[in-house]
């Protein structure tokens, strides 16, 4: 077994180990509003559920050489954002939004995706997404590396409105139908994964 001391690894090597080992990761497709009113959209795979009561989601936005990304800056400034579940039908368009564009340019113009008005926040959602969560910013936490450079913005969002397509929801049981949703997860590098074989384990009482 290889053993690596964290303080002897470069930031790049640390990222490669973590992103290659902590898999599969769900992908948050996040929209925010830029200062000029343009809809900013970008995917983030350092993302998960924090709590169901209250309903909280976490999205970690890594900085580039200490520079805050548009998503984090907009979310912190406006206190709102929308998180979408990434699925097979829209993942190629989502990937296009990862391009480095100017802060006032909407990534959606490079895709076939369309903004749609939200119910409880001012930030538009994405019409084609089958599940989306309107969020208000519950907490913003920054993290610094050993050199004192801020390297990540952790956004904790409180879900204030859920949007779920009828085709991916069993209203009688209250369950999301994962086979219909067809979520996509992130692996390492440029690799992604679809849902694979499922199995059931009963939790011990």
From TrEMBL:
Top-level taxonomic group: Bacteria
Cross-referenced SUPFAM superfamilies: FMN-binding split barrel (SSF50475)
Enzyme category, top tier: oxidoreductase
UniProt xrefs under PANTHER family: FLAVIN REDUCTASE LIKE DOMAIN-CONTAINING PROTEIN (PTHR33798:SF5), FLAVOPROTEIN OXYGENASE (PTHR33798)
Cofactor: FMN
Name of the protein described by the UniProt record: Flavin reductase family protein
Species name: Bacillus cabrialesii subsp. tritici
Flavin reductase like domain mapped to chain residues: 20-177
Cited InterPro entries: Flavin_Rdtase-like_dom (IPR002563), Split_barrel_FMN-bd (IPR012349)
